[in-house]
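Posted in: Structural Biology > Protein-Ligand Complexes

Title: Requesting predicted complex, dioxothiomolybdenum(VI) ion in pocket

I'd be grateful if someone could produce the 3D structure tokens for the following input. Sequence and ligand are given below.
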Amino acid sequence: MTLSTNARDIVTGAAPSVGAPMDRVDGRLKVTGSARYAAEFPMSNIAHAVIVTSTVPVGRVSAIDTRAAEAVTGVIRVITHLNAPKLPMKKVGMFGTNALSLMQDERVRYNGQPVALVIADTLERATDAASLVKVRYSGTRTPTLDMHANKSTGYAPPPGFGGQPDSKRGNVQAGLAQAEVKVDAQYKTPIENHNPMEPHATIAAWEGGRLTVWDASQYVVGARDSLAGVFGLTPESVRVVSHFVGGGFGCKGLMWSQVPLAAMAAREVSRPVKLVLTRRQMYGPVGARPQTEQHVVLGAKRDGTLTAVRHDSVSHTSRFEDYTESCANVTRILYATPNQVTTHRVVKLDLGAPTFQRAPGEAPGTFALESAMDELALKLGMDPLELRLKNYAERDPESGRPWSSKSLRECYRVGAEKFGWARRSRTVGGMREGDVLVGHGMASATYPTYRMPASASVRLTADGAGAVRALVQTAAHDLGTGAYTVMTQVAADALGLAPEQVRFELGDSRMPPSPVAGGSMTTASTGSAVHAACMAGRNKLIALAIADTASPIRGALAAAVSAAEGRLFLTGEPTKGESYAALLRRQPNGMMDVRVDSTPGAELAAYAMHAFGAVFAEVRVDRELGEIRIPRIVAAYGAGKILNAKTARSQLEGGIVWGVGMALHEETLVDRRTGRYMNADLGEYHVPVHADIGMLDVTLLDEVDPHVNPIGVKGVGEIGITGVAAAIANAVYSATGVRVRELPITLDKVMGEMRV
Ligand code: MOS
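-- Reply #1 --
Done. Output follows.
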């Protein structure tokens, strides 16, 4: 693996921490079980709440009998729409309350909707009592659950997180008329659930009119604002704490119903309440990735030059919001075709609200586009990699802007070389070992680089023994990604301290704000803020010293002072200086504080910013049984500066593993009669296990991006899943001659269809 060296001059010490494959600073806490997750905060007098969910997809609760539940020993309260407090339900901050089901009326809008909440002194009693709540429904009707059959009801959603639903450049009709070869195909992807190891979990406690919530959250500031809106409070009177999160992947980005339900219950029973969703409830009152149907049309000249591209994506949403899986956004930027149309339509179904899941849009979108590119290459008799190079976008074809940096060509080259792409057989079914058909496939990977405003604070202290410590805080999140570790590295280098001297804290809405841990933007956003705050701290130390008659560098020019290894000294004259400790001890209370707000600037309008990569997959397919195995995947990424080669690689490997799941295993099944999820557990919803993953060979290119943000990073949280399903589908075709356009690629779709 290529280690990224420093793109920017943030390192001053002899041993830079940034870039090194440093072990996780929270690793010991994790492996010893002492990292405290949301449901684990010790709380005296805590009560336990269990949600009762609807068993019909649509209608009204006409009667609800809670007597048996209330008779269970230890039950404190049963809340239903009949006795639930009426809540203000205002929009505060970014997110509205449409997707919440807080028992404000008798309507049922999806199967699995919370219709009652049982609160008891133990989880067991609450669970038992919840099973005794009897609900009757009226006004039920046949639910609308088939997105494909109801495509005609699709509508263009209002612009949302994915931007405008439609895009157009050039003239697709004219481009298709020039085409000598065409691909016109439909691709489908199913509902996919997140399945983090840690389910959604909340503890809520009130003190007077103030609410504190310990929650598994990807966005503590967002959850704070949403709670303030729901309960009609000021954001200042709500605190959300989320120190450790056992996986999020998007499902913990928005606040779902269980958080305000826990808060409602805690207020009603006047004691802290814990509410943890069951694994089954992870499919229901919280969102999953919606199903998609994507129509891709490619037109090309015989030499492979794309003359036109059309990508029309349909995904499902609920009756009460407009969640859009932005599948075609990737098509807008990936290839340099002059003529292109992309559209997004959403179809309302009687299901709960879908939501963001790792690379929302790009994950299913690259499956469709990169499968279609493979189909085109085959029709042209062209190497799929050559076809991609032929249409390489030297600038962002949509905006015309230059890339802040782009190493995709190098990703293709390195990936192909490590994989041995040139040595593969180009004949379908041309590689076999007895009854095993071997196939090779590749795809491009990409994900946008986002950055949002973030703030961070630094406190430097010196104790009597001369030990200097930095406390760095921001309301960011570590979902298992390594944020604690990389922020510690950024802070240490900027401050001229060792990582051991830095304590980095996150996950508390009282800290300086950070954005949602989504869109792969924590490192770019929060990292830029931490860097800026620590640089400000270092500059403040220098300013204090040169203005201080007691300092050996009094009167020096700031530009002539270096800060490294806990000392300030004249550059080139290291003996002339003093330790931070000496300087800090002369400050009030022996400490110094800085807080900085960091926002993106003009670079956003000047450059197009994306990470890119290339994925190569080998599959082995049993010719009789259709069983698919993946012995190896080779991938290379250009994602800006890599702050920590170990945690970054883990992120990318995790994304690839999920890509394998998406390709071969994952599919949430809805009962067409009842709208109920039929495989809502980890026994029936299949995810890859160790035996499903062969060798993963991930290369992080040494990409220098001077424009993207102050620390030169692009983010690696989501790009890893992109392109993987297409690379595998393309490899399955190369092995068997079966083109599977509907995920997951289960053996029934391959067996009996093989042309070899
Ligand atoms: Mo990610 S799906 O934006 O948490």
